């Protein structure tokens, strides 16, 4: 019996649909300064370098647990530790928004992303995004700013769903948006571990975008995507090849 054609495509965001424009160090320095400046407007004093150091601890922890406690949680916890336990949600959000107003400027949509998205939609593919990210609002705003939001059935983040790729639950939450089995969907991403290994463990089809991929030799030796593509332009032909093979 022929397999069903793949019509549902789950995309990673950073490194796949968008890329950073420059070095993150000066961007983060300006962003952290704006966050602490915003807090200072409300008589809340936090050193920006301490905040960034705590974020690095948070990064290490979430990579181990694959659980996203969010930037919001990290900031609230820090402020509570230094005597600001009663900071309102609105002030925390203003501070984080100030930070993201800087970091968002360092992201750019890949040059081939829009045309590929439009081509996939014209071929009646269903599209979704799952991004490992510490703040859901930040990701939603980025997707809106690129003008691609209408093409996607959903935009999910680990910040909103708690689980990070490659955790199985992250992919299950995404697939539940379509109410489909993993074998009927494909994952497109740049991370061999988070995107390709995670999706492959559920028997999703996997498309590795290599142009900005960072990996070590061990990853390359043990993780085998169904397709390795230099860019997004090669995605639709690869999907058509896969569907043709599955229906022979």
What this model shows, in words?
With 248 residues, the protein is of the alpha/beta class. The chain folds into two domains: 8-17 and 110-246, 3-Layer(aba) Sandwich (Rossmann fold), CATH 3.40.50; 24-105. Helices cover 49% and strands 13% of the residues. The protein has helices at residues 24-40, 48-65, 70-81, 89-103, 113-122, 136-145, 158-161, 168-176, 192-200, 217-222, 235-246, and strands at residues 8-11, 18-20, 107-109, 126-131, 154-157, 185-189, 205-209, 227-229. The longest helix has 18 residues, at 48-65. The chain is elongated.
Question: What's the arrangement of secondary structure elements?
Answer:
Blueprint: E1 8-11, E2 18-20, H1 24-40, H2 48-65, H3 70-81, H4 89-103, E3 107-109, H5 113-122, E4 126-131, H6 136-145, E5 154-157, H7 158-161, H8 168-176, E6 185-189, H9 192-200, E7 205-209, H10 217-222, E8 227-229, H11 235-246
Helix pairs in contact: 1-2, 1-4, 2-3
